[in-house]
Design a protein that fits this description.
By secondary structure, the chain is an alpha+beta fold. The protein is built from three helices and four strands; from the N terminus they run βαβαβαβ. A four-stranded antiparallel sheet has the order 2-3-1-4.
Length: about 100
């Protein structure tokens, strides 16, 4: 599995279609998605006068060469760096299963 990264992206449910379109435009194949919710407790949400929001989590495996383009797109096209727009992380999976 040399040269691959496991990518996780979490955002608001209302952005799900936009993110799926983004992944498609950037050649990301085999995106798994699932509905989830934030981790803040009801007490914390009440204290901050916030409402619980539904989230969607996308998971996929991309080639290492795609990572830079994907990050750039997430920042410029999806504005993921703005507060509340989501989070993305990449985990290298080169070592999964040990050396060949």
């Amino acid at each position: 599995m040399l040269g691959f990264k496991y990518m996780i992206t979490i955002t608001k449910r209302e952005y799900a279609e936009q993110y799926l379109d983004f992944f498609h435009r950037h050649g990301v194949k085999g995106v798994l998605s699932k509905l989830t919710s934030g981790t803040a407790s009801d007490v914390t949400l009440d204290y901050l006068s916030l409402e619980k929001t539904e989230k969607v989590m996308f998971e996929t495996i991309i080639k290492e060469e795609q990572a830079g383009e994907i990050v750039k797109g997430l920042l410029l096209e999806m504005n993921i760096s703005a507060v509340g727009n989501g989070i993305a992380l990449f985990v290298p999976i080169d070592g999964v299963g040990g050396m060949s």
